[in-house]
Amino acid sequence: MRLLKQGMFLLMLTIALGSLWIFSLLTCSNPGWNPSSVLRYSWLEYTDSDDSPEKVCNCSGILQGEREALEQAKLLTITKDFTKSVHILDEHYMNATEDCSAFKLRRKYLTSPLSQEEEDFPLAYSMVVHHKVQNFERLLRAIYTPQNIYCVHVDKKAKSSVLFAIWAITACFPNIFMVSQPVDVVYAAWPRVQADLNCMADLYNSSTRWKYVINLCGQDFPLKTNLEIVRTLRSLRGGNSINSEEMPASLMGRVRNAHEIIDGTNQDTGKANEPPPFNIPIMYGSTYIVVSRGFIRSVLEDRRVPALIEWLKHTFIPDEMFWATIQRMPGVPGSTRPHRKYDMSDVNAIARLVKWQRLEGSQDSLHSAYPECHGSHVREVCIYGAGDLEWMLKQHHLFANKFDIDTDPIAVYCLEKYLRKRALSELQ
C-alpha cells in the first residue's frame, strides 16, 4: 500500500510539473496571453450542458461539410417532435425576463467588453423586427456587447405578444432601447426606410459616440465576431460599404411610374413620376448598409435628402434606392462618384450575404454567383440551411440573411456556437 501511495504521489507530481512547464511555455511564447482572462470568460462558451435540443446534432461535422452530419441535420429539421422542442413561445420571454440578472446569466450574454480594442470602437445597430421573437433574441445575444448601442423598431402592426416580449428583453439592458417613433411598415414602400431612419436618428442623438452603424432585420445573423467586425470597419478608414450600382433598365418602372400606398400595399398609380430633385442620379442597391457616423449626419442634415425622401415616397421598393443613391452624392462622408467605375455589388459590399434564387447554381457553372441553397426559398431569397454554413463562413460579409429557426434551427445553433467559441479564443 505504501508503495502504491508513493507511486500515485510521483504520478501526480509529474502531471503537476508537466502542466507548469506547458503554462510557462505558453506564457513565454505569447507574452500578451492572459490566462486569467481565458478562465474569466470560459463559462460563457456554449456547451451541451446548456441543454439545447439542438445539441444532438454534430456542429463540428456540419461546419466542415461532412455528409453524415448534414444528413442527420436535415432529418432533424423535418422531425415534428424536434422542431416542436426547439420552438419557444413569445410569452416565455416575458416570464424569463422578470429577473433580468438571471436571464442574462442563463443566456450567457456578454456583460463586459472582451478587449480594449472593441471598447474603444463602439458600434450602433438599428434592428427592424415584426415577428419571430426567438430569432430576434438569438440574433441580439450573438451581437450584444455592453459598449455598443442598439435601437429596436417593432412594426406597429406586429402582434402584441411580439411587442411585449421584445420590450421585456430590451428593458434588461441599459444600452438597448425601443425606437421613439415606430411606424406601420409597408412592404416595398417608404415606411420600411422610415423605420431605419427613426432608429438612426435616435442612435445619432444618443450619448454613445459610436463609430459605425449597421442595420439589421430579425432574420439576420452575424458571420463574424464583434472584434472581427471592429477590425473590418476600422480598415474602411471612414468609408462606407454599400451595395450601389447603376439602375438596371428592367427596373426603371420602379421610379418612372408614380406609386402610392393604397389599402396597405404600394401600388402603381398609372401616372408618371416627377424627375429626381437636384438632378440626383438614382442608384440601385440594398436595404442593408454599413456606414459611418458622418454618413448618418449627412442623411439627417443635408438639405438634398428631404427632397430625395419626398420623391422616393412615390417609387416602388425605395429601400433599394435610398442608401445606394446617397452613397453616390458628392459631399457625403465616405461617398463615391456616381460613375459606373465605382459601382459596388452586394457580393462585394460587406454588409449582407444574400443568396438570390435566380443567381444560384452548380459550383461548376460559370453563370451562377453562388452554390445552390440548402434550405428553402421565400420571395426568391434563400432561407439558409445547415448545409450552407461551410460555404458561408468563407465569405467576407459581416452578416447573412435569411435565417429562420422555424425552418432550420440547426443552422443558427451551429453558427452561434462557432461564433462564441471564436470570440472567446480571440482572448488568447
User: What structural category arises from helix and sheet content?
Assistant: alpha/beta
The global form is: globular
Q: Cα distance, first to last residue? A: 44 Å
User: Kindly state the mean pLDDT as a whole number?
Assistant: 91
Can you give the helix content as a percent range?
Answer: 25-40%
Main sheet makeup: 5 strands, mixed
Uncertain runs are: 1-33
- The tally of helices reads 18
Cα-atom Rg, whole angstroms? 24 Å
Strand content: 5-15%
Q: Spatial order of the strands in the main sheet?
A: 3-2-1-4-10
Structure report:
Among the domains are: 34-86 and 350-428, no CATH class; 244-342, no CATH class. Helix 6 runs parallel beside helix 10 (160-170). It contains 18 helices and 16 strands. The strands form six sheets. The chain has a five-stranded mixed beta sheet, with helices on both faces. Strands 5-16-11 form a three-stranded mixed beta sheet. By secondary structure, it is α/β, with parallel strands linked by helices. The protein is globular. The protein has helices spanning 2-29, 35-41, 59-63, 67-77, 80-86, 90-96, 100-106, 116-119, 133-143, 160-170, 191-204, 226-234, 253-256, 293-301, 304-312, 322-326, 389-392, 409-425; strands at residues 123-129, 149-154, 176-178, 212-217, 220-222, 244-246, 257-262, 265-272, 283-285, 290-292, 352-354, 360-361, 370-371, 376-378, 381-383, 399-401. Helices cover 39% and strands 15% of the residues. The two termini are 44 Å apart.
